[in-house]
Design a protein that fits this description.
Elements (H helix, E strand, L loop, with lengths): L1 H28 L6 H33 L6 H29 L5 H34 L2 H19 L3 H15 L3
């Protein structure tokens, strides 16, 4: 569990953001203009917390550790998860491009934004289930304790050196604020 505890904990925050995005997509589908600052902060959260932090931990540390331990039963799942990461980045680019159109006053982009957000939410929810059920459990059972401890240290290094100190705390405050604003 040590090797995936941090990642599982991050899934809680990601799940909260996905609920916020659901509410935002619903508002956009009803024709409501979303706040440009809120959209920019959601995009920043997805780029930094989800991709730069969480996915980096998996791609640079966890997945290579599973492969190095020759846990072949997880290989197909790892390939699917990596494909999800690519699709998530592509969908995030759609969200960002559409939100820029909205910021320029193109109200016709509302439906496209809602669709992109919904696509991202559905992708990430399925991705998280796959990670926790088919990858993390296998890693917890198959990786030696010393490897799991090294993973935990590596995760801390990524947060400190790649993401930056205090960023997680700032994102938790963002989740609180957006959760209140969108009644999630």
């Amino acid at each position: 569990m040590i090797g995936t505890q941090d990642l599982r904990s991050e899934h809680v925050g990601v799940g909260w953001m996905l609920r916020i995005m659901d509410a935002m997509a619903g508002s956009a589908n009803r024709g409501k203009q979303l706040d440009a600052d809120d959209l920019a902060q959601v995009i920043d959260f997805l780029r930094v917390f989800v991709d730069k932090c969480h996915h980096t931990k998996e791609e640079e540390l966890l997945f290579p550790a599973i492969r190095a331990a020759n846990i072949t039963s997880a290989e197909e799942t790892i390939l699917l998860l990596l494909e999800d990461h690519v699709r998530g980045r592509e969908t995030l680019a759609r969200i960002a491009a559409t939100s820029q159109r909205l910021a320029r006053g193109d109200r016709s982009a509302n439906a496209e934004l809602a669709d992109a957000m919904t696509t991202y939410v559905e992708l990430l929810r399925a991705h998280i289930r796959r990670e926790e059920d088919e990858c993390f459990d296998v890693a917890d059972r198959g990786l030696p304790l010393a490897v799991q401890e090294a993973l935990a240290e590596g995760y801390e290094r990524i947060e400190r050196d790649v993401v930056g100190g205090g960023v997680h705390e700032g994102f938790h405050a963002l989740l609180d604020r957006l959760g209140d604003a969108y009644r999630v």
